[in-house]
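Appendix B, example 12.
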Amino acid sequence: MNTLKSKLKFLPASAGVYLFKNSAGDILYVGKAKVLKNRVRSYFTQNHDLYPRTRQLVTNIADFEYIICDTETEALMLENNLIKRYQPHYNVMLKDDKNYQFIKIDYSTEIPQVYTTRKLDSKKAKFFGPYTSGASVRQTLQLLRYIIPYCGNSKIGSRPCFYYHLGRCPGVCAGLISLGDYKSTLAAIEKFLSGDLKRVAADLKTAMRTASKKRLFEKAARLRDQCRALEKMLERQKIVSPKRESHDLANIFAAGQLAAATLLQIREGRLIGRENFMLQNAKGEGPEGILSAFLGRYYLEASDVPPEINLPFPLKLSDLAEALAQKFGRRIKFLAPTRGRKRQLLKMAETNARDYLQTSSQNLAKEQAILTRALFELKDRLHLPQLPFRIECFDISNIQGTSPTGSMVVFENGKAKKSEYKRFAIKTLETPNDFGMMEEMLSRRFAHADENLTRQPPHSIREGKGGISWRLPDLIVVDGGRGQLNVALKVLKNSNLRIPALGLAKKLEEIYLPQLKSPLRLPPDSSALHLLQRVRDEAHRFAVTYHRRRRSRAMLAPAGKSN
C-alpha cells in the first residue's frame, strides 16, 4: 500500500489509460481517464461511493501502470485495444467477440474480393458488421451474389470464373467488362451492405430500362429478376417509421455474471437487422456501466454507424461520440427518448435481450453439464486421483524432420483456454524422430513446473525464482500410443513429478495408460472419449498451423539461413 500511495502522488494531469494489477502481476482492470491524476486517485479516496464490484476490485489492487495519451479519444481507443488483449476480470466485455464476423470488400487485389473475415486487418478494404450469426452472414452473401453478381477471381485472366457460368459474375475476370465498369458493381454492394436497399433497387430498375431500350433483352430480364428478389426482401422488412429515418436502438438485460445486449438497426425507416450480444463479467456492475462498455466495444469496430443512436437512459458518452465523429467524419448523437415509437422499440430491444440471455444461459448450462459429466466419467474410467479440471495435450508436427514444431493446448473445466496455449520450435533434432522431439518439448514445458501452482484458480502463470512458472495439469494427454506415453512418463520421472498421463492413438481411438498392458477403448458415444478427442484434435490443429508457418518462413529465407 505504501508503494501505491507513493505512485499516486506522481500521477500526471493528462489523459490516458490505467491498468490495475494484483499481487501476482495479473491485470485486473483497464480504464481510461480525461485526467489520470483525478480518476485513479478517486478509487482510493471515494470508496464509499463505489459499486460493491468496484470496492472488491480496489481491495485486490497491489500496483498499477498508466499510459499517457494526447486526448481522451485516443485513450478510449487504447483502452478498447488493451481490454481485448488482456481480457481483465473486472472489465465488462463482449463474450467471444473474436468470433464475430465481418463482410469485407478487399480492394488490395486486382479484382476486389468480397468475403467474410473475423479481423479488421487492412486499410485497403471496407468492412461491414460485426455479425453475430454465421448463418445470417452466409445468407446475406448468397442473396447479394444473386441480386448484385460479383466476381470470385482476384485477377483478370483469359477464362471467366465459375460464377460467370452460373450468371453470378459480370465477367470482369475474363475482360468482358472493364475494371472501371466493375466499380459500379462494388458501389452497389457497398450500398446494399450499408442497408440502403431502396437506392440499390432504383439503380437496378434504371439499368433494366437502359438495357431494354438498347434491346439487350437477356440482360434486362436478368436485372428484372434481381429487382424482384430485392423487392421481396424489402417487403419482408418491418416498416417502423414512415419518415425514412436511420438510427440504431440499443438496450441490455443483465442477470448474474452475464448480460445481453440487443441492437436494432433502422435504415430508411425499415428494421433491417437485429444483433444480439453476450457480455461477461457483468456481476455487480450497474446498467450504465454495462451499456457504456457494450457501446464502446461495438461501435469502435463497427463499419456503419447511423447519425443517431437511441438508448434506454441518458449516458455521458462525449468521448465515444468524438471518437466516432473522427472515424466517420460526421457527428453522432446519443439520445434517450422517453416516449413515442422509439421508446417502444427500446422496450422491444430489452425484451429481445432478456429472451436471448435466458436462452443462451440455458444452452450454456446444458453445455457445462455435458462437460462436467465428461470430466467425472474421465476420472472414473481412468481411475484418476482427482477430477481433471486442467488437461494439457501435446503433439508434434513435422515432414521428414523438417521445421519440426510442438504444441501444448490447455483445457480447463472441459473448455479450451487459448490464452495458455504454447508453441515449441524443436531445436535439437532435424531428423524424423517423434519420440526425441516429444521428449524435448515435454522437458522444456516441465522445466517451468511449479508444484505450488497445482490446482490454483485462473491466474496461474507467475514469476518464480527460475523465471516464469506454469501451473501443473491434472492430466497429461500425448497424441500417440505406447511409445509417446513412455516418453512422457520418462520426462515426468526426471522432473520428479507425479501427474496422470495417457496416450491417445488416432487410428482406433485407443487410450494407453501406464497401469494397463492393453489399450483401453471407450464406447463411441462416451462423453469422456469425445472430450479427449476434442483436446487431441485441437493440439494437432495448433501444431500443424505453427509447422506450416515455420516451413513457409524456411522456404522464403535466404540460402544458408535457418528459421
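Confidence is low (pLDDT under 50) at residues 453-467, 559-563. The radius of gyration is 28 Å.
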